[in-house]
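I'll show one example:
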Amino acid sequence: MLLGSLLTGGYKLRNQKAEALAQEAAEYVGSVLGVDSGPIGVVLGTGWGDKLYLDNRREVSFERVPGFGRLSALEGHSRKFVAGSCGGKQVLVLNGRVHLNEAPADPMVHQMVRLQTETLMRLGVKKLIVTCAAGALPDTDIAVGNLVLIDGFLTLFAPEMPLFAGEFCSPEDVLSIRNFITASSSYSGGVERGVYAMVRGPFFEGRRCDKRALRQAGADIVGMSTLPEACIGALYGAEVQALAFITNDCEETHDHKTNLRRAAEASEQLGFCLSEIVKAT
């Protein structure tokens, strides 16, 4: 009983510290960017970062926000909070995210992964759009260049989420695909629905065994993000729309530079499609 009480007390203390830090970060971002309550939240993944056009754009780098002081650079991610409007809708954006695989053993990375999304939630975000790059799995119709609206998660192979004891949530239950038609009409590269499997990385999953195992377990695509944001969104009762751009198929040798290039080549279309989804949200 004593051990259980000590553990519970430790979790509560860490949770209280996380809540205080999230409130501090939200107050800083809100004051610097002049964020009104209730914006649409957007997380921009690989290939999505530079083509969401916002009016009255304001930004602040992660490094200036409380809780992100130890952040390092990552190729393809500029790491900014950005505010503005799109089609008359107020938008608050994470332009570049912190990934759990950047330093898996460092508790500060877990803290920042949680903090980046929790900052949005504490600034009144109730509708969250999360974007990413992902890979296709065998025996599906999903191909490189497709846009996939995620309608489920395979969590069995995911790393530990940035959650505390007692924070039970159902990330799959907050997923929404209500803008599937909007995406289909505004993106010419083909739009599909599918289940997303998150793996730790940063190494690519194996083509001979891993991809087939993930497919047999029920996934259609695989990546290294998105689930943490959905978990934090679920804690706050937000609606989450999750979109994946497919950068590689299930057979080719994976290469990060190729994935970045393919995402960059599609960025104009992705940005237009995302703008239309924001307007319809």
